[in-house]
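$ ./design --mode recover --in tokens.txt
reading tokens...
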């Protein structure tokens, strides 16, 4: 007889344990299924499975998603935008604030909190009713040596001393230091982590290449020059309590650097950026460097995962879409072309072949100017 066809000892009774085990396994499966189904439906705390109850991508329970949202809301940042009352600054501030509000209203904009334009011209201007503004004094006459950016750290010192921000109720409050030529292209989360601020690394801020100058303000006993981050003050997301310590030092170092001929000649228009980096290092603060914080056309050609377009450079192209940097192009967009007035509505779009970063920038300026009242007046 084929061994496989022979009965096992005990006959039919030997099959009973197998049946029992199968029933136990099935019962365990049903219990496990119901348990995990309950968890992923929010343990009864949220709506049933469906578009409103479960994240369709990662199947995140409602209660878990809500908890994550609460964490974001506990870490909002307040935007502090330093500016002057010049027409050149005003139109950029209007575009910047327009897109800030747009991104703040989108999903993912929960961390984007209040907004203050810190106006360091000493008197109100025509944007007071459009953009939340806090007026501070400029430096005493002649103290900026014709370098208006020196007013930025002094503006922060005054604002931090006098202003109260709603975000202070959350983890001591965070501040995003921003500039008029920043355009938000998507909602910005809080990139800082507790006492580690987040900053953008600039390729032209190179402390290690200027150690002899950096050591005038950051002596050897303080640590290696690499403690000085390759950053400026903007964009930076930082705890308010940290910035309150750094800002007076930043102001003093800025003035000292400007009054030192060698430092002034070497650092030029980025002197105040170096001053912030040095001041931070003097207080033992180093930043999380986020290259995705922003892009700078025309050198950055793609949007990628960035949050901000910084339009500090001129964008010059031939009608064939070729960059002609250093030479005025047949098509161009340069903020410096609009020193005493805003750019006209409906700017001509770049020719075919121009990178998406530049095309996106011009489209966003056009949308803002089309929707902002009295644009041509410049307010």
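writing sequence...
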């Amino acid at each position: 007889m084929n061994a496989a066809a022979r009965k096992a000892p005990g006959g039919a009774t030997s099959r009973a344990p197998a049946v029992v085990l199968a029933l136990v396994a099935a019962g365990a499966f049903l219990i496990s299924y119901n348990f995990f189904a309950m968890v992923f439906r929010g343990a009864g705390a949220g709506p049933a499975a469906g578009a409103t109850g479960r994240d369709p991508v990662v199947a995140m329970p409602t209660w878990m998603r809500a908890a994550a949202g609460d964490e974001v809301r506990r870490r909002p940042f307040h935007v502090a935008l330093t500016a002057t009352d010049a027409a050149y600054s005003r139109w950029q501030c209007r575009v910047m604030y327009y897109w800030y509000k747009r991104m703040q209203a989108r999903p993912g904009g929960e961390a984007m909190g209040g907004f203050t334009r810190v106006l360091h011209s000493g008197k109100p201007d025509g944007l007071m009713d459009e953009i939340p503004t806090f007026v501070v004094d400029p430096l005493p006459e002649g103290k900026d040596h014709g370098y208006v950016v020196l007013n930025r750290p002094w503006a922060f010192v005054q604002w931090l001393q006098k202003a109260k921000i709603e975000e202070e109720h959350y983890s001591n409050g965070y501040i995003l230091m921003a500039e008029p030529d920043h355009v938000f292209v998507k909602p910005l989360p809080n990139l800082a982590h507790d006492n580690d601020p987040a900053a953008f690394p600039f390729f032209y801020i190179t402390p290690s290449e200027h150690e002899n100058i950096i050591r005038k303000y950051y002596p050897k006993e303080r640590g290696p020059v690499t403690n000085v981050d390759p950053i400026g003050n903007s964009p930076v997301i930082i705890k308010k309590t940290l910035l309150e310590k750094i800002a007076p030092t930043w102001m003093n170092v800025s003035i000292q650097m400007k009054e030192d001929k060698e430092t002034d000649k070497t650092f030029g228009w980025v002197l105040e950026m170096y001053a912030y980096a040095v001041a931070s290092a003097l207080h033992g603060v180093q930043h999380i460097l986020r290259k995705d914080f922003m892009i700078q056309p025309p050198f950055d050609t793609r949007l990628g995962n960035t949050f901000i377009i910084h339009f500090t450079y001129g964008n010059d192209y031939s009608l064939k879409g070729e960059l002609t940097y250093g030479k005025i192009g047949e098509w161009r967009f340069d903020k410096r072309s609009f020193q005493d007035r805003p750019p006209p509505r409906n700017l001509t779009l770049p020719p075919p072949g121009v990178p998406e970063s530049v095309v996106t920038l011009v489209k966003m300026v056009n949308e803002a100017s089309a929707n902002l009242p009295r644009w041509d007046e410049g307010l």
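exit 0
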